[in-house]
Design a protein that fits this description.
Helix content is 25%, strand content 33%. The protein is α/β, with parallel strands linked by helices. Strand 5 and strand 6 form a beta hairpin.
Length: 292
């Protein structure tokens, strides 16, 4: 298939069919996503933003040429990054998310009536606006008076919070460009400080297959600060190699001791009590990452 350069991450083949091409250097693989329609493209203050209708995944949010989430399987990522830390905490009242401007994880948090505050911090206002138009209507979450959208750099925002939250969800991007600082030791300290005495945080920690250094450094940085640190895995079809990791760190509560009867999974599509527990069973090749 001859390639013709186009927008970042996009190409057309000899038949004029548009594709998104995602090359992962660490894994030496390239994944192509067939595009039915390019619905929107712009360059915001921070990044290139595209909304596409794809053949295999429905509508995609694409940032700088890399697919981030889809309407067909986005529930997997959103459920696993949200329910696990919320359920682990015995009585969560205040929850905040850094990243996740499409508000998918906020919608999952709204399923827990005991939560009183849901703050979403997204640096790029245009991501939020376009997600509202093309992916999820604002009516799905803005009628909930617990919800607040904050358009600010998460690295700067969190430094102003001291003991403010029960649960933090760090839906950070890849460690490139502006997102690099969300992988620095200072950021982990700011996260620790922003949690109260029983606080819990979860980080998107990359692929255990080709982001091993990211996963290892995440766990190492969290072990310095938190008494309880556990990694769990999830299968995400959209992402290259399919397997992804999240790492949870807690000042008090252990996810393996969570009360699974409180899991709000009546309307979920992926997580169940059994999946919750099974996700923490790590294959040996993942355990070996932490032993090096």
């Amino acid at each position: 298939m001859a390639e013709r350069k186009s927008l970042s991450g996009f190409k057309k083949d000899d038949n004029g069919v548009l594709w998104i091409s995602n090359y992962v250097a660490n894994a030496k693989i390239k994944t192509d996503y067939k595009v039915k329609t390019l619905l929107h493209y712009e360059k915001s203050q921070y990044q290139q933003i595209s909304i596409v209708e794809s053949e295999g995944f429905g509508r995609l949010l694409v940032l700088d040429g890399t697919p981030q989430i889809s309407t067909f399987e986005g529930f997997i990522y959103n459920e696993m990054i949200s329910h696990v830390p919320i359920l682990t905490h015995h009585n969560p009242k205040s929850v905040a998310m850094i990243g996740g401007g499409d508000c998918g994880n906020a919608r999952e948090a709204m399923k827990y009536s005991e939560i009183e505050q849901i703050d979403v911090v997204e640096i790029d206002e245009r991501v939020t606006e376009l997600a509202r138009k093309w992916l999820t209507p604002a009516s799905a979450y803005e009628n909930d008076n617990r919800f607040q959208m904050i358009h600010q750099d998460g690295f700067e925002w969190i430094q102003e919070k001291k003991g403010a939250y029960d649960v933090l969800i760090i839906d950070r991007p890849d460690p490139v460009g502006p997102g690099t600082k969300l992988f620095k030791p200072d950021f982990y300290q700011y996260v620790f400080n922003s949690l109260n005495d029983e606080g819990i945080v979860v980080f998107q920690s990359g692929s255990p297959y080709y982001n091993t250094s990211t996963l290892r450094s995440t766990v190492q940085n969290l072990h310095i600060l938190f008494p309880i640190v556990r990694t769990y895995l999830v299968s995400i079809p959209l992402f290259p190699c399919g397997v992804w990791s999240f790492t949870i760190a807690s000042k008090k509560w252990d996810p393996l001791q969570a009360d699974l009867s409180k899991l709000q999974h009546q309307e979920t599509k992926y997580i169940t009590p059994e999946v919750f527990l099974a996700s923490f069973a790590l294959p040996k090749y993942v355990q070996d990452i932490f032993n090096k």
